[in-house]
Amino acid sequence: MSGHRLTVLVVGATGSIGRHVVTEALHQGHAVRALVRDLERATDLPSEAQRVVGDLTQPESLSAAAQGIDAIVFTHGSDGGKAAAEQVDYGGVRNVLQALGGRSARVALMTSIGVTNRQGDYNRTTQIHDWKRRGERLLRASGLPYTIVRPGWFDYNAPDQHRLVLLQGDTRQAGDPSDGVISRQQIAKVLVHSLTSDAARAKTFELVAERGAAQKELEPLFAALQPDAAGALDAVRDSANMPLADEPTRVLEELARFSTPKR
Ligand SMILES: NC(=O)c1ccc[n+]([C@@H]2O[C@H](COP(=O)([O-])OP(=O)(O)OC[C@H]3O[C@@H](n4cnc5c(N)ncnc54)[C@H](OP(=O)(O)O)[C@@H]3O)[C@@H](O)[C@H]2O)c1
Q1: Domain count of the chain?
Q2: 245 Cα: distance to centroid of ligand 1 (angstroms)
Q3: What is the distance in A from the centroid of ligand 1 to the CA of 76?
Q4: Which domain holds residue 203?
Q5: What is the percent of the chain where pLDDT is above 90?
Q6: In a domain, 182, yes or no
Q7: Predicted confidence (pLDDT) per residue in 198-228, tens digit
């Protein structure tokens, strides 16, 4: 599929990762549509990127952004607080997928290393892991072709630390940079490349970098991963520590709605 020019909606385009995604997608030859809630925050995005105004918490504001797109890269995030985690980190995924109105799109979703860690202080305070993970689950349930990238700590890498390592099982859960580090630019590159990679389809992985040079080709890295099991809500090898029986009713209802072929 490489070389295929897509119209890519970047969700979180004004954020610290989203800005790199916009640049990288243009670099890879795609047309970019940047979802922004405040045009003033988008003045320094490349002029070739189309800006579309929308707020992830207001579903009706997302229709125009979702028209005519081939792909979506989600890099959005809330600024803390349980309500914002639900409304933005999870609700943003739900509302943009809903705005597709049943049309298909290739999706790359960025969440976080440690997203399955429920008992750490960070998740107990913010519930951000849980809500990001519910966003992952909704995407898997949707049946859309996807790749889910769980990056380590942004830009904590040393200058010579660019050799990409893709992990599965989400077993690094210290909650600090010892779990893994990665440059923002490399996260963006992996997200955008995944959109045109058959080998990246239905794959979920943690993304970190070790000392050494960046690999020239990403395909072998994607190809070496196990795909998520068909029909499973969690990633392959994830801990089964979020039983549906304990999930909020509204989450179960939305999972059921998104799992319906004609949603
Ligand atoms: N820092 C790390 O090491 C690390 C590691 C792994 C994962 N993460 C996760 O990565 C995520 C993104 O990080 P980042 O540094 O790129 O965050 P960021 O710079 O704060 O960017 C967040 C983006 O989301 C957008 N956004 C927030 N609420 C919105 C809404 N209601 N409607 C539309 N857009 C909205 C923001 O738009 P505005 O510009 O309008 O605010 C911005 O574009 C975070 O959620 C974090 O949990 C971080």
Answers
A1: 1
A2: 30
A3: 4
A4: 7-259
A5: 96
A6: yes
A7: 999 999 999 999 999 999 999 999 999 999 9
Q: Is the CB of 91 under 6 A from ligand 1?
A: no
User: Element (H or E) spanning 222, and its range?
Assistant: helix 219-223
Separation CA 97–CA 80 (nearest Å): 23
Tell me, what CATH number does 76's domain have? 3.40.50.720
- Banded model confidence at residue 80, pLDDT cuts 50, 70, 90: confident
195, two tokens: 């959109």
Q: How many helices (H) and strands (E) does the chain have?
A: 9, 10
Q: Is 80 exceeded by the pLDDT of residue 260?
A: no
Burial (Cβ within 10 Å: 0-12, 13-18, ≥19) of residue 66: buried
For the segment 239-251, the average pLDDT, to the nearest whole number, is 98
The single-letter DSSP state of residue 46 is -
Cite the DSSP H helix spans in 33-90: 63-66, 82-84
C-alpha angle 247-12-79 in degrees, rounded to nearest 5: 60
Distance 87 CA to ligand 1 centre (A): 13
